[in-house]
Specification:
Pfam families: Lactamase_B. This is MBL fold metallo-hydrolase. The protein has helices at 50-60, 77-80, 83-89, 102-106, 109-119, 203-216, 233-257, 260-270, 279-301, and strands spanning 6-8, 15-19, 30-34, 40-42, 69-71, 94-98, 137-140, 145-147, 152-157, 166-170, 175-179, 184-186, 191-193, 220-223, 228-230. It is an alpha/beta fold. The longest helix has 25 residues, at 233-257.
Length: 303
């Protein structure tokens, strides 16, 4: 699958994954379309390549008045930046997002400023988000259910990646839409990599979120980046190890260098060995993840 294309999710009826082409990397940005009785789009991408997503939704067979739900997993703009554009195009759709993300989608100014600060030149890959009308959006929280007519999604809070993050579970199909709660599964290297952005990454909570996903016992994990993958105990164990090892690497390097800028330089230099996306994105992503862990360590060390 390439940018702008979609394909069925193997083993799950009526579920499709669309590749947004985010950061000019095939399959990095995954948006899910469930063609249920009350159809839903789960996550939205940055909004930059929204016309291709509109085309996929139409080709799947969902009309402009038929889409019922727009469901970002959290408010980060690589997952929710297109929500306002989707709401405008699909006037019957209601937007639902974890409660702490509602204000960011109604008034995205602060989120845009924070994102620009965090991603630097990578902002070129984003669209300026369109606000979601406040009469079209409500918050969801632990235990809430999204009615798709012939099935439902159960909301589970998963705030380790960000306090406005949730995972969505279809218990009948044994699918969990993990977004960033279990890291990023990268098919090119057959491994899970952590995603630990500033300023609110919480290591212990991330491990709890992975255990939550494990306890749901899914057959399929729908990652927010690089798409779906079958779930097994080895994958869940690998996700836990990836987070533990990454946080410890940053902790040890900080103790060794005693200079956070030097720590950032060290890991950014190491990003040259990452070849599953372009060098610019590899460096930016590594910098983001390193700063997230450093911020977390500052917080816990100060407690």
């Amino acid at each position: 699958m390439r940018a702008g294309e979609f394909e069925p999710v193997r083993g799950v009826d009526d579920l499709y994954v669309h590749d947004t082409g985010m950061f000019e990397t095939d399959e990095y940005g995954a948006v899910y379309v469930y063609d249920a009785e009350r159809p839903i789009v789960i996550d939205t991408g940055t909004g930059a390549n929204r016309e291709a997503l509109f085309g996929s939704i139409e080709e799947i067979g969902i009309g402009r008045e038929e889409l019922a739900w727009i469901l970002p997993t959290h408010a980060h703009l690589d997952h929710a930046g297109g929500a306002g554009y989707l709401a405008e195009r699909y006037p019957s759709a209601e937007v639902r997002v974890p409660e702490r993300g509602v204000r960011h989608l109604v008034d995205p100014e602060a989120l845009v400023a924070g994102t620009k600060s965090a991603v630097g030149d990578q902002w070129d890959h984003y669209a300026e988000p369109k606000p979601v009308p406040d009469d079209r959006i409500e918050g969801v929280t632990e235990g809430d259910r999204i009615d798709l007519g012939d099935r439902e999604l159960v909301v589970h809070d998963a705030p380790g990646h960000a306090p406005h993050h949730a995972v969505y579970h279809d218990p009948d199909a044994k699918v969990v839409f993990t977004a960033d709660a279990a890291g990023i599964y990268v098919p090119a290297v057959d491994a899970v990599t952590p995603t630990t952005p500033p300023p609110q990454f919480d290591f212990e909570q991330c491990l709890d979120d992975i255990r939550l996903v494990e306890d749901l016992d899914p057959d399929t994990l729908c990652f927010g980046h690089f798409g779906p993958r079958g779930c097994d105990a080895d994958l869940i164990g690998e996700a836990k190890r990836a987070y533990v090892e990454w946080v410890e690497r940053v902790r040890q390097k900080r103790a060794e260098l005693d200079d956070d800028e030097a720590v950032l330089d060290h890991f950014e230099a190491a990003s040259r060995d990452i070849d599953y996306w372009n060098p610019e994105r590899a460096r930016a992503n590594t910098s983001l993840n390193t700063r997230g862990v450093l911020t977390y360590l500052d917080r816990v060390d100060g407690e």
